[in-house]
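Worked example

This section walks through a single chain of length 61. The input is the sequence exactly as stored; nothing has been trimmed or padded.
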Amino acid sequence: MNPLDLLNQVKELIEKKDFDSAKKFIEDNKDHFGDYLEQAKGLVSGNDLVNGAVDKIKGLF
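Given that input, the structure is written out below as C-alpha cells.
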C-alpha cells in the first residue's frame, strides 16, 4: 500500500470508531506512512481527546 492508502485505512477505522485498531495499524505500519505519519497520529489523538471529553460528560449524569 502507498502512504495515502494507509492514511485512508486509518480514516476508515476511525469512522467505525475502532480507535484501538487505528492506533495499532499506525504503529504496525509507521515505517510506510512517510510524510503522512504525523497526520495519521493526529487523527487518532484528536479522537482520543473527544472521547475523553464525552466520557467525562457521561460521568456527570
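What to look for: The mean pLDDT is 82.
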